[in-house]
Amino acid sequence: MTFIKKNYWPTILLACIIFLAAFLRFWHLGQNPPSLDWDETAHGYNAYSILKTGKDEYGYKSPLSFRSFDDYKPPIYTYLVVPSVAVFGLTDFAIRFPSATLGVLAVLFTYLMVYELFKNKVIALLSALFLAISPWHLQFSRVAFETNSATFWSVLATWAFLRGIRSNGAKVAFWMSLSSLAFGANLFMYHNARVFTPLLAIILLFLFKRKLLSIKKYLIVPALIAILFSIVLIPIVTSVSGRLRFEGTSIFGDASPLYKASQLIAQDEANHQLLIGKILHNRRLVYIPILVNNYLSHLNPTFLFFTADMDRHHAPQIGLLYLWDLPFIICGIYFLLSKKFPPKSKVIVFAWFLLAPVASSVTWGVPHALRSEIYLPTYQIFASIGVYTLYTYTKHKKLFVLTIGLALLANFLFYFHQYWVHMPIQYSQAWLYGRKQAAIFSDSIKTNYDRVIVSTKLEQPHEFWLYYLKYDPKKYLAEGGTVSGGFLETRNKFDKYLFKPIDFEKQAGEAKTLFVGLPSEFGQNAHILKIIYYLNGEPAIYIADK
């Protein structure tokens, strides 16, 4: 290989890493995970509706917040799906294509960002490689979840900012404008990014304030971009929909801690300790222990290395990080603190790491892999610094590389096997498998019935039926569109389909009805036409009449 110049090797290795990242994210993208979940079908059908009508499923024209299931999704991911659906059709591959694409690009820009931080190509290449094969990043790159895209925009924005800081003249305006655009886009990518992005941006501005003041004449356009995004965002987050989203997921929407504090104060008053009680159980302070516990829960080793938080967020017997990562992450944190790395680069990496779980910490159901994926790529950076620094210390470099390489390969192959072989079978229920098959079968025999009742216990079934039947959005909106995205909504309907709870004996006597629901919803009098099974062989959905 002497014909390849030495300085070409980093580029060749980076190209190989990008190819690996693309293969892992796009291979069988439409087949595994084995089904779309409700958020993915919502992105898909709303993108399809925008493409065909310019409106979402509620009839809102070009919305800046998609109501969806009353969770009011930020808009950018859905809009990214629109051209994908235009090219590939309304398919599972098309819905996940933007996420996989941005996942690959995140690997590339991680290399570029890390190189700007440390000016070390080995650390940058290792960081890109570790992100390319990261179980955490792969899990969410292969599904249509907004959080994965937020990771890409964060990395891009930080890299562009660093390039701007180290540029001169008109180039400063270009890079800073790109950074403002990426940070701004992140505000419309995922709810948690609306907390993380401003905080990270403030830290970057503070770290480089002297440099920025010296080039302020080039910052007019970037500042205008930032102001424009803020002007658009503020009315959204302060609107009724923004408050609904916050109250629905935030710990502050639950008054039980306040009630408990009032009970404790009442007990103190009964014991003549009212003043002390009001101080110790102050209602303004009762949420602090919850916040601290929520924040620290994201560092739980069991969560990170073994179980994650729910089946849809990991492969069986695999956490969010490889067990292989653990010693190198610890070493990397130590070396980054103690060795001569650029001080400001240290601050940026640690600030990113410390800010990542802040938004998630004010919500219930933590630790939460999806809401805290914005940790990435800090774990990969720590591991890369750990590996690189240990390598420089060891006398037996070839043995070191061989040993850790084989250990990483073993971890990766186990993950690969678990994800592609066992996850579809073991976790098909978590992935809501069977909705596609049920929708297609029910549609094939609906002409024999006056109506089709689909149980709302199938979790947002109207979205699945709209998506898998590719129901014409123009016709759907003419019929009234979606009534409400709430999980208890019972009024959604289109064509012959009614989406409501099943009361089999009563409803079967009202009209000639086809029922689609969970096995538990049918009694002995039901005539079962078809049973759809999860991939592990357990019954998933019954389709029946009387």
From TrEMBL:
Where is it located? Answer: Cell membrane
Keywords assigned: Cell membrane, Glycosyltransferase, Membrane, Transferase, Transmembrane, Transmembrane helix
Q: Which domain of life is it from?
A: Bacteria
InterPro entries, per the entry: LipidA_mod_glycosyltrf_83, RgtA/B/C-like
Which segments constitute the Glycosyltransferase RgtA/B/C/D-like domain?
73-234
Which regions span the lipid bilayer?
7-27, 93-115, 122-138, 150-165, 195-212, 219-237, 319-337, 349-368, 374-393, 400-420
Entry annotated with the keyword Membrane: yes
Name assigned to this protein? Glycosyltransferase RgtA/B/C/D-like domain-containing protein
